[in-house]
Amino acid sequence: MDLQAQLEELKLSTQAKLKEMNGNHVKELQDLRVAVLGKKGSLTDLLKGLKDLPNELKPVVGKQVNEVRDILNAAFDETARLVEEAKIQAQLENESLDVTLPGRQMKLGNRHVLTQTSEEIEDIFLGMGFQVVDGFEVEKDYYNFERMNLPKDHPARDMQDTFYITEDILLRTHTSPVQARTLDQHDFSKGPLKMISPGRVFRRDTDDATHSHQFHQIEGLVVGKNISMGDLKGTLEMISKKMFGEDRKIRLRPSYFPFTEPSVEVDVSCFKCGGDGCNICKKTGWIEILGAGMVHPQVLEMSGVDSEEYSGFAFGMGQERIAMLRHGITDIRGFYLGDVRFSEQFK
Ligand code: FA5
Q1: Model-level pTM?
Q2: What are the pocket residues of ligand 1 if the criterion is a CB atom closer than 6 Å to any ligand atom?
Q3: What is the number of the ligand 1 atom nearest to the C-alpha of 266?
Q4: For residue range 230-275, what is the model confidence (pLDDT) as tens digits?
Q5: Rounded to the nearest whole angstrom, what is the distance from the C-alpha of residue 234 to the centroid of ligand 1?
Q6: Long-range contacts for 108-115 (Cβ within 8 Å, ≥24 apart)?
């Protein structure tokens, strides 16, 4: 076969091979390019025969070689482009996203019902100009009892036995020690003291449907000039109505706390029986939610506040009892079990 025929043959066979290539032949395409157009490739081989041709044919065949090289170069480029395109297409098909698939359901949590209750009460009091104060769960005997007018051998300490860390340090039994700590700090030349203090308290109590050895209270304290029992009653009535609705009744019972005089206990009509008597209210029709009274002069004096000039009222409400009344929760232990099914009800 003469050189021209061989050139034509090389062109046609290379074009045919390129036609057969598809997306997976990147390596083969490169190999073929080297084999045909490379330094030691078939075209270079054929070129070597150029020198044996008669002189008049040399430019003609030389031109033909260049043409074939150009044609094949273009064909290789085109095939390379097609191969790349096929590769991208395959990738797109494999990695395609179905945007119509429904997303994974995220379970949204919610704040604990006690946190919600505490925040709602805080909001009401903030609206009335009270400040919110933090206290210590681990407290000194001095603030928990002595500053609350309960000296070491006072019999009323028995009602609030607790867990002692040392003889002088204990887990507080109520939020009342915050009263003494805040009174110590307050500057009465700037106006009356109006504060609440929510937090956890601890007692050596037997657990049942309405009692826990660990529960939450919100302390309230107002001290200023001419503060009367009427102010206490008005504040409590307003709070009860806001928390439990207009139809819930409250009653004030005379009571005793060493740190208030006079003292009262405040009950709300039972949420379950409406006042007829049931197992929740222990057949009384009422549930006790807070203790309150006029701040004992001795408590004021121990903070260096002149009890002739200043007077005040204080209260301590049980957060769990309030949440139970608001939501119809029948067992206080539900608050602490960490059962999602319980918490989910209060979204
Ligand atoms: C006191 O703790 C007083 N410090 C309250 C007080 C403050 C009176 C300021 C006067 C002035 P008492 O022990 O009654 O009082 O508790 C107050 C409220 O806490 C109760 O009305 C009740 O709602 C709640 N409570 C008491 N014991 C428990 C308990 N074991 N479990 C759940 N809640 C309780």
Answers
A1: 0.72
A2: 174, 176, 203, 205, 211-212, 215, 217, 257, 260, 288-293, 314-318, 320-321, 332
A3: 21
A4: 999 999 888 888 888 787 788 999 999 999 999 999 998 887 788 8
A5: 20
A6: 109/343, 110/343, 110/344, 110/346, 110/347, 112/335, 112/343, 112/346, 113/323, 113/327, 113/329, 113/335, 113/343, 113/346, 114/216, 114/319, 114/320, 114/323, 114/335
